[in-house]
Structure to design on (89 residues):
């Protein structure tokens, strides 16, 4: 099973990554800064982009069986949340 994760560099996201890997899941993690996920090495697929980059978002969720958002309250403004939802439809 493949999981696409948004917000993987924060504390909650890191716990999700660790637990998903422990359980044998494949992960595609969306981030603005790949360096913050370097501790996981090749164990995860890292997709770099911001939340306005529709192509990168599509690449992250391609083939995913589940999408998890661990984005913090300051990660998105209300208008950007609506655009993100519209882009994934």
């Amino acid at each position: 099973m493949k999981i696409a994760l948004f917000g993987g560099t924060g504390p909650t996201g890191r716990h999700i990554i660790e637990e998903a890997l422990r359980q044998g899941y494949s992960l595609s993690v969306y981030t603005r800064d790949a360096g913050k996920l370097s501790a996981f090495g090749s164990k995860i697929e890292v997709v770099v982009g911001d939340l306005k980059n529709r192509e990168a978002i599509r690449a992250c969720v391609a083939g995913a069986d589940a999408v998890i958002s661990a984005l913090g309250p300051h990660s998105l403004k209300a208008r950007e949340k609506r655009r993100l939802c519209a882009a994934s439809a």
